[in-house]
Amino acid sequence: MDYKAVAFTGPSGSGKTTLIEKIAHRLVPERKIAIVKHDPSDKAVFDRAGKDSDRFFKTGAEVAVLSPSRTSLFSHRPRTVKEVVELFGDFDLLLVEGLKTLPLPRLGVFRGRIDPDYLPVLQAVAIDDSVPRPLPSSLEGIDILDLNDLDAIIDWIDAHALSMQ
Questions:
Q1: In sequence order, what are the residues at sequence separation of 6 or more whose Cβ sits closer than 8 angstroms to the Cβ of residue 145?
Q2: Who contacts 74 (Cβ-Cβ below 8 Å, separation ≥6)?
Q3: By CB atoms within 10 Å of each CB, which of 53, 60, 69, 141 scores lowest?
Q4: At CB < 8 A and 24+ separation, what contacts does 12-16 make?
Q5: Dihedral angle of Cα 98, 87, 83, 44, to the nearest 10 degrees
Q6: Per residue in 61-82, pLDDT tens?
Q7: Short-list 34, 146, 10, CA closest to 87
Q8: Where are the beta strands (DSSP E) in the chain?
Q9: Which domains are delineated in the chain?
């Protein structure tokens, strides 16, 4: 399976999820999109207490819920991105939120200020008018994108996403 992949990084509340959501909405009509989100604090909850799948998961078993329109996997063990991607089957573009150690072309999303701790892993930043100008010289060699220009961001993704197999 051949696909392209790109990652998004930035502080909590910077707009990563919103940007990925906008990109997916724009591209899904013409491309098969897959998204992987990292949850480093283990905060995400995907079922309600007392429902069947929650009760099955609490037994310690691996659980898959199949319906006519979706498949949900509830696993007690961490999975690699590669394992998850294989579950997706055929798709064109993988958008990854987080996982900053994953060697993918990476776009940083910032509002208010650019956190210099992220710069070593970034090839581009997407910022809005809330980031003070002039921009720091530490951004030299990093593409600067307007967070509100979805077309330019998609063009950057198309030009820089890594081909994967």
A1: 107, 124, 125, 126, 127, 152, 153, 156
A2: 46, 47, 53, 56, 57, 62, 63, 64, 65
A3: 69
A4: 13/111, 14/109, 14/110, 14/111, 15/109, 15/111, 15/147, 16/97, 16/98, 16/109
A5: 40
A6: 888 887 888 888 888 888 888 8
A7: 34
A8: 3-9, 33-37, 63-66, 71-74, 93-97, 106-110, 124-127, 143-146, 162-164
A9: 3-41+78-164 (3.40.50.300)
Give CA–CA dist 154/87, Å, rounded. 25
Residues in the chain: 165
Q: Which ranges in 66-149 belong to alpha helices (H)?
A: 81-88
Give just the sign of the alpha carbon dihedral 39, 45, 47, 50.
positive
Closest CA to 15 of 93, 131, 116: 131
| First-last CA distance in the chain | 5
Average pLDDT over residues 92-113: 93
Helix (H, G, I), strand (E, B) or coil at 68: coil
Paired tokens of 25: 């909405």
**How far lies 39's CA from each of 51, 66, 82, 96, 161, in Å?**
23, 23, 16, 11, 22
Residue 40 burial (10 A CB sphere; 0-12, 13-18, 19+) = exposed
